[in-house]
Amino acid sequence: MAAGKKAKNVGKNIKGKTKEVTGKAVGNESLETKGRAEQVAGDAKQAAQKAKDTLKH
Prior knowledge:
Elements: H1 3-26, H2 29-56
Helix pairs in contact: 1-2
Protein backbone atom coordinates (compact mmCIF):
# COMPACT_ATOMS: atom_id res chain seq x y z
CA MET A 1 0.00 0.00 0.00
CA ALA A 2 1.30 3.45 -0.79
CA ALA A 3 2.68 4.96 2.38
CA GLY A 4 0.86 8.27 1.87
CA LYS A 5 -2.52 6.64 1.36
CA LYS A 6 -1.98 4.32 4.32
CA ALA A 7 -1.11 7.26 6.57
CA LYS A 8 -4.14 9.18 5.34
CA ASN A 9 -6.47 6.25 6.09
CA VAL A 10 -4.94 5.67 9.52
CA GLY A 11 -5.29 9.38 10.20
CA LYS A 12 -8.97 9.20 9.25
CA ASN A 13 -9.44 6.33 11.72
CA ILE A 14 -7.71 8.26 14.50
CA LYS A 15 -9.71 11.41 13.74
CA GLY A 16 -12.91 9.37 13.81
CA LYS A 17 -12.02 7.71 17.10
CA THR A 18 -11.26 11.11 18.61
CA LYS A 19 -14.64 12.45 17.52
CA GLU A 20 -16.40 9.36 18.85
CA VAL A 21 -14.72 9.58 22.27
CA THR A 22 -15.30 13.33 22.48
CA GLY A 23 -18.95 12.86 21.53
CA LYS A 24 -19.38 10.26 24.27
CA ALA A 25 -17.66 12.47 26.84
CA VAL A 26 -19.84 15.50 26.18
CA GLY A 27 -23.02 13.58 25.40
CA ASN A 28 -23.15 14.66 21.75
CA GLU A 29 -24.64 11.72 19.83
CA SER A 30 -24.21 13.46 16.47
CA LEU A 31 -20.46 13.88 16.97
CA GLU A 32 -20.19 10.30 18.21
CA THR A 33 -21.99 9.02 15.10
CA LYS A 34 -19.84 11.11 12.77
CA GLY A 35 -16.75 9.69 14.45
CA ARG A 36 -17.92 6.12 13.93
CA ALA A 37 -18.73 6.88 10.30
CA GLU A 38 -15.22 8.28 9.71
CA GLN A 39 -13.70 5.15 11.20
CA VAL A 40 -15.79 2.92 8.95
CA ALA A 41 -14.81 4.99 5.91
CA GLY A 42 -11.12 4.76 6.83
CA ASP A 43 -11.36 1.00 7.35
CA ALA A 44 -13.13 0.55 4.02
CA LYS A 45 -10.49 2.55 2.17
CA GLN A 46 -7.73 0.55 3.84
CA ALA A 47 -9.38 -2.71 2.81
CA ALA A 48 -9.81 -1.50 -0.76
CA GLN A 49 -6.17 -0.42 -0.95
CA LYS A 50 -5.00 -3.77 0.43
CA ALA A 51 -7.10 -5.56 -2.18
CA LYS A 52 -5.52 -3.45 -4.93
CA ASP A 53 -2.05 -4.22 -3.61
CA THR A 54 -2.84 -7.94 -3.51
CA LEU A 55 -3.98 -7.91 -7.12
CA LYS A 56 -0.83 -6.06 -8.24
CA HIS A 57 1.42 -8.79 -6.90
